[in-house]
Amino acid sequence: MQLLSLTLTNFKSHRDRHVVFQPGTNAICGENGAGKTSILEAIAWTLFAYQGPYRKEDLIRNGEKSAQARVAFVSRQDGRTYEVERCTAKGYVIYDPQLGQKLPYRNLEAEVLPWLRQQLGVAGGTDLSQLFANTIGVPQGTFTADFLKATEDRKRVFDSILKVEEYKQANQKMLSLEKYAKSEVEALERDIARYEEALQDLGATQQRQQTVTQAIATAEATLTQLEADLATLQAEKEALAALANQVQQAELRLQTLTTQIAAQQQTNQVLETSVQKAEAALAQCEAHRASYAAYLQAEATLKQLNEQLKQRSPLVKQRDAQQKALAAGQAALTRLNLQLEALAQAQQQLQALQPGIAQQAELEAQQAAVAESLNQLQAMRVEERSLLSQQGKLQENLAELAQDLQRLQALAENLADVSSLEQQRDRLQTQLSRLEAARQFEGELQTLLTGAEQQRDRHRAQAAAALDTLRQMQAGMPLLATDAVDAVLQALQEGIDLNSELLSNIRAILTDLAAQTDAEAIRKQIQQTKKAIDAAYRQRAEVDNLPAQQAQQQRLQGELQQAQSRLQQLQQALQAETATKERRSHLIQALSDLGDPRGRSQLLQQDLAQQPTLQAQYERLKSSQADAAAAIAQLEAQLAQFAELETQIDTQTAIRQQHQAGYQLFLQAQATAEPLPSLQQQLQAAIAQVATLEAERAQVQAELDALQQRYDPQRWHQVEADYSAKRSQADQISGGLPPQRQLLAELDRKLAELGAIAAQRDQAQHDLKQRKQNHKFVVFARKTYKDAGPRITARYVQQVSQEGDRLFRELMNRPNLSLEWTAEYEILVREGGYTRRFINLSGGEQMCAALAVRLALLRVVADLDMAFFDEPTTNMDRPRRESLAEAIANLKSFRQLFVISHDDTFEKVTENVIQITREG
Q1: What distance in Å separates the CA atoms of residue 479 and residue 481, rounded to the nearest whole number?
Q2: Do the beta carbons of residue 72 and residue 4 sit within 8 Å?
Q3: Phi and psi dihedrals of 151, rounded to 5?
């Protein structure tokens, strides 16, 4: 599997980040707090569902609603490229770029995690979160710490990684399964015993079923014979019952007719009484008919008089309205007359106001002139304040400009020589480009120096021996020329001194070359020179602006002189402001004392303008008053014809009251007398009905006598008694059959239950054999898991040890070393014939050994070819950091390695450097 890229959106400190990964070692570098560790956390969260100690809201950038991470990778299963995106709000989305569509996987446990296991190439059921936490993602600062722990502590750490506890847990979990299998066997044995006990009554139940079946057959045959006899008796009984019913119906009809005749006779008596009452009421109506007519006549007359009263009411209302309008018009006439008299007086007042109006116009003209002068002075005051503000700003600008000019002039005098700096930069760049040749020359000189020093040492030893020999010869041979010996001694000493001087010169050259071959120092000098050049160019740009600044200074000085000249003019003109304000106050007082004659004149003219209108209103109102008086007179004439209306109403009311009693008696009698003709007709019909009913009763009596001669009551009672006896016997047998049938059904049901129990017993006996086999298998499987755990763990340890040994030699690049990871999870390193424990290794060796074992665990347990390291060089000195970085970079067995580093250690050993900068 190979990771291609990672895209983060609002994930922790990253707003919008896209990172591309390469095969080999990917060094993720940057300052502290830039979000380097978040890169690995996002990969773990997306591909391994590992969230660590964080809550979901901890993954979201401050101020945002959700976080997203998208990882593109090449699948280990099919070699195709996929993109997996995970969002804190929407969950997983898996995209196939080659097909250009999303895969239908959304559920984490059921769909996404199984698919990720396939693409990663790990075993099904593997807990990806634990795999990353314990194996793939090596936590910061724990490379060597776990291997330095005591034996028991090491076992707790690596037992979890090697899944040792899974075998123990499987054995422990199968204990409950063994108990369950045993309980199933015991339960079946109890069930079989219970079935045998329930089947003890099977024979007695079968015998009783046969007895009840025979009894039911006998009772059913007897019941069939009784049913036939009952049918014969039923037919005879029905014939006799029909004849008895006819006799009964005839007697009932006879009785009904007798009752109807008696009721009709009573009805005839009631009708006769009603006819008599109606005849008496008719006589009473004739006695009071005159009073009834007089009452009705008075009622009609009153209705006519009320109509006249309704006609008079509108006329009265019109007369009252006209009288009210006449009174209102008279008041209006009086008011208009007063207004016309006031207008006559206003004409005189208007003539008297003319001199004051002329004086007011003169004062207002003077006031307008004074106001105009004050407005001009106010504008000058505003201009004065503006000029004062402008003068202050100009003075401030001139002061600042003077400082800038002074600085620029000083800068012009001390302007750096840009050409010399550029030449120095070019020399340094040329020196940097020739760095390899200088290094080669340095190496050759170093070799030469080393050889020369060795030759010098040999020459010095030989010269010293020769000098000693010469001195001995000179002491043994006094005649030997002293000058010659001294010359030889001096020549030897000068040779030694010359050799030492030559070597010193070569060493000085090497010292100079050391400075010249220090690439980092040359780069720093180039950077400093570039900064000096940039500063010189900025200074030259500022100095070039000096003439423009001087021109601006002259312009500002001219503007300042103009502003000061204008200020003097304004201050002279503003001296007259106090006198002008006093003149305005005198004019305002004079106008106030005059009392506004123009305004009063205008009001009087407005009033006089209404005089024609008021005069016309006065004339129209006088005409309206005359019309109203005429209308009142006409209405009074119309009302005269209704003068006697109240007297007539009182007279007719008295007449109606006089005849009211006779009227009431007539109405009462009339209600009783009206149905007299109908009552007489009903009485005649009722008499005819009585005659008809008596004839029908005689006919029914004759039919009853004929039926009684055919009907024999004794035979009917005999048939009824025989039928009842046989019916009782049949009912007794029928009543006994249901309990017997129920008993038979109960016996059949019981036999069926016993048969089912027998079948259950047989099935339980068959199941018991199978459950015993299952229990035996579970016991065997538990023992197998118990015995297999240590063996498989030992196999894992052996494979990890072999793979770790190979990786350790690869990391150390020393084939004479070997590594062993023991059953107690302790690391032993052998070199030559000696064995060293992990605690006795150097820091670099410990780091490489721990790294080899962890990578071997990753390869053996998970069979993956990528790993993640978070700050593996923490708390290490520079040599150890560089050693570990080179060791990791030399690993060829892993397709991709991801290393987080806060320094440049890994930048030197890999070209795949990912720089992470802090986002705002």
Answers
A1: 6
A2: yes
A3: -60, -45
Residue among 7, 621, 73, 541 nearest 330 (CA): 621
Q: Which of 78, 116, 115 is nearest to 98 (CA)?
A: 78
Helices (H), 288-417: 289-352, 354-413
**CB contact burial 724-755 (16+ within 10 A = b; e otherwise):** eebbeebeebeeebeeeeeebeebeebeeebe
Give 16-66 pLDDT, tens digit per residue.
999 999 988 888 988 888 888 899 999 999 999 998 888 999 999 998 999
Question: Do 500 and 449 meet the contact criterion of CB atoms below 8 Å apart?
Answer: no
Mean pLDDT of 176-200: 82
Burial class (CB in 10 A: 0-12, 13-18, 19+), 465: exposed
Q: Is residue 604 very low, low, confident or very high in pLDDT (cuts 50, 70, 90)?
A: confident
Amino acid letter, 176: S
Name residue, tokens 């016993």: 754
Report the distance separating Cα 377 and Cα 575, nearest Å: 9
Q: What is the pLDDT of residue 434?
A: 58
Q: Above 60 in pLDDT, residue 228? A: yes
Give the mean pLDDT of 547-556.
81
3-state secondary structure of 61: coil
In order, the DSSP letters of 867-886 are EEEESTTTT--HHHHHHHHH
866-870 and 896-901 as β-strands: parallel, antiparallel, unpaired?
A: parallel
- Using DSSP's 3-state secondary structure scheme, residue 19 falls into strand
Contact (Cβ atoms closer than 8 angstroms) between residue 353 and residue 543: no
Per the listing, tokens 């422990």 go with 172
How many C-beta neighbours within 10 Å does residue 526 have? 18
| CA triple 689-690-692, angle to 5 deg | 65
CA dist., res. 168 & res. 175, Å (int)? 11
Coil vs helix vs strand at 95: strand
DSSP 862: I
Distance CA(29)–CA(481), nearest Å, equals 78
Rg (CA), the chain: 70
How many C-alpha atoms does 14 have within 13 Å on its Cβ side? 23
Could you tell me which residues come within 8 angstroms of residue 832 by beta carbon, excluding any fewer than 6 positions away?
816
CA dist list (Å): 119 to 2, 504, 666: 10, 67, 120
Residue 336, helix vs strand vs coil: helix
Name the burial class of residue 48, with classes exposed (0-12), middle (13-18) and buried (19+) by CB atoms within 10 angstroms of its CB.
buried
- Strands 827-831 and 817-821 turn out to be antiparallel
Question: Cβ neighbours of residue 242 under 8 Å, at least 6 residues apart?
Answer: none
From residue 803, how far is each of 432, 625, 850 by CA, in Å? 44, 136, 13
Got the DSSP string for 467-512?
A: HHHHHHHHHH-TTS-HHHHHHHHHHHHHHHHHHHHHHHHHHHHHHH
Q: Give me the amino acid identity at 377.
A: L
Q: For 138-158, what is each residue's pLDDT tens digit?
A: 666 666 778 888 988 888 878
How many Cα neighbours within 13 Å face the side chain of 697? Answer: 15
